[in-house]
Amino acid sequence: MTRFTVNDRPVQFLMDPETPLLWALRDAANLTGTKYGCGNGDCGACMVIIDGEAIRSCLVSIAEVEGRFVTTIEALSGDRSHPLQQAMVAEGAIQCGFCTPGFVMAGAALLARNPRAGREEIAQAVRNLCPCGAGPRIIRAIERAGRAMRRRENLESLPAPGIDPAEAAQVVPAISAASPEPTESEP
């Protein structure tokens, strides 16, 4: 049995101790925000924070995490109010969204250590891959979140992420099979 804390909750995994943390989180804990990308640590889609450090969860076994504290994207902020989440929206840094949790977790770990991180430090610390090409916007978002964390920029005025379903679609009455078909004289 392997025990550690995930998102401030103690967890005991009854899995093989060599199971990658990624699969324990996704399959056993149902924390699917941590994404499987490449499986060999290159892409960063599976990034989580372990004891304050951004770690690729596909490269670490649950045995290696014994007794440690793991934070996934689900616990960064339940209402998506973390400055980095808000800055990602403000900068339009989310393209397809698949790599977004990994970038957010890597950026959040960096900003927790150094909210004054500049472009070069961000580029060195956040080496995730974005196949869509949103990398420059992601770096700007991390810089912007750092400014917000230092209270030099207010992100509270940003709209909450997401679309209100009532604004995104309308319910249209279904056409019933019993409706009469128009005749040639009717337009």
Describe the structure.
InterPro entries: 2Fe-2S-bd (IPR002888), 2Fe-2S-bd_dom_sf (IPR036884), 2Fe-2S_ferredoxin-like_sf (IPR036010), 2Fe-2S_ferredoxin-type (IPR001041), 2Fe2S_fd_BS (IPR006058), Beta-grasp_dom_sf (IPR012675), Diverse_Oxidoreductases (IPR051452). Residues 1-76 form the 2Fe-2S ferredoxin-type domain. Keywords: 2Fe-2S, Iron, Iron-sulfur, Metal-binding, Oxidoreductase. It holds the Pfam family Fer2_2. Residues 156-187 are annotated as: Disordered. There is one protein chain. With 187 residues, the protein is α+β, with helices and mostly antiparallel strands. The protein has 2 domains: 2-76, Ubiquitin-like (UB roll) (Roll), CATH 3.10.20.30; 83-160, [2Fe-2S]-binding domain (DNA polymerase, domain 1), CATH 1.10.150. It is 32% helix and 11% strand. The chain has 7 helices and 5 strands. It has helices spanning 21-28, 73-76, 83-90, 100-113, 119-125, 135-149, 165-168; strands at 2-6, 9-13, 47-50, 53-56, 69-71. It has a 5-stranded mixed beta sheet with strand order 2-1-5-3-4, sandwiched between helices. A hairpin with a 2-residue loop joins strand 1 (2-6) and strand 2. Helix 3 (83-90) crosses helix 6 (135-149) and helix 4 (100-113) runs parallel beside helix 6 (135-149). The longest helix has 15 residues, at 135-149. It is globular. The termini are far apart.
